[in-house]
Backbone:
């Protein structure tokens, strides 16, 4: 589409990770397998928590929300990427690109905030167990999660509105496997200083605040655990907290490398690989780190699977 002497771009070309078709097909199969594992693990959490009234508590309410957000986060890009590779289609419309940016940022921010809330929930449960029911009642938790959704959507509407005002009149080739802020800003022929400022200030605030909350919560948890005289209790607590923090480091380390480092340090190879870590690997690990190692969750899933098997057997006998 032409506007004056400029050709305004109405669609983009997503190059993916590699130019080689063989490597692209291999990656599509690998990512599809990881995506299916992620969906299965998180769906089991949602199913197990929903079907067992014993698990209708604040901690499991947050975990079920995290599972739902993880599915949505990865679903914003992996299915389309796999279809594009298998069909040989690499284009995405401008409107489709903005839509993908909006939902991707929404779910990524919500994922970060929920991990912070889960850390705070564990802090209250371990450091102030007598006040847990008053501080973390289910009604308050529902209001908290609803408030987090509002904050993330307002933040993401700002980014999407700022992106929509930009003009793209040069190259339409994105060296990535999905639409993201930085690759789009590089292609714009408009002044992107406001967008960059919004990314650092608003994005930094929304990323830094949960990270500080997580570190403070686990700091108090470690301090409390060290006072436990039981060696076995210490080992279990440190093992659990260590696993949680490893996911936090993976998520924040790779996402910070993409969004909060100088543009000169970004490369077409590094940014997509970093994005894979915090948008696919972390959501795939979350079910195993936060829930599926839990004894109560294992019992709930066993009951649910037994009910499902009995139901199928009854239907076959009819």
Residues:
């Amino acid at each position: 589409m032409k506007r004056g002497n400029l050709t305004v771009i109405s669609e983009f070309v997503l190059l993916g990770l590699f130019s080689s078709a063989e490597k692209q097909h291999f990656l599509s199969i690998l990512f599809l397998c990881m995506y299916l594992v992620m969906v299965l693990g998180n769906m089991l959490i949602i199913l197990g928590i929903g079907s067992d009234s014993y698990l209708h508590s604040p901690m499991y309410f947050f975990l079920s929300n995290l599972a739902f957000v993880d599915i949505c986060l990865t679903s914003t890009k992996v299915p389309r990427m796999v279809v594009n590779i298998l069909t040989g289609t690499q284009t995405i419309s401008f409107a489709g690109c903005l839509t993908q940016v909006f939902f991707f940022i929404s779910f990524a921010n919500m994922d970060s905030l929920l991990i912070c809330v889960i850390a705070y929930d564990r802090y209250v449960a371990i450091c102030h167990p007598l006040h847990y029911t008053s501080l973390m009642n289910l009604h308050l938790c529902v209001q908290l999660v609803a408030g987090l959704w509002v904050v993330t959507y307002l933040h993401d509407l700002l980014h999407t509105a700022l992106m929509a005002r930009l003009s793209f009149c040069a190259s339409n080739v994105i060296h990535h496997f999905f639409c993201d802020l930085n690759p789009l800003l590089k292609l714009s022929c408009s002044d992107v200083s406001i967008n960059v400022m919004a990314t650092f200030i608003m994005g930094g605030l929304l990323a830094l605040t949960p990270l500080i909350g997580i570190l403070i919560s686990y700091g108090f948890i470690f301090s409390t655990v060290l006072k436990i005289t039981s060696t076995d209790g210490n080992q279990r607590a440190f093992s659990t907290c260590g696993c949680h923090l490893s996911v936090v480091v993976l998520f924040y380390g790779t996402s910070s490398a993409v969004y909060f480092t100088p543009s000169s340090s970004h490369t077409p190879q590094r940014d997509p690989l970093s994005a894979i870590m915090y948008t696919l690997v972390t959501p795939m690990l979350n079910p195993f780190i936060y829930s599926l190692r839990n004894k109560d969750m294992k019992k709930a899933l066993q009951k649910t699977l037994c009910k499902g098997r009995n139901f199928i057997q009854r239907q076959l006998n009819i």
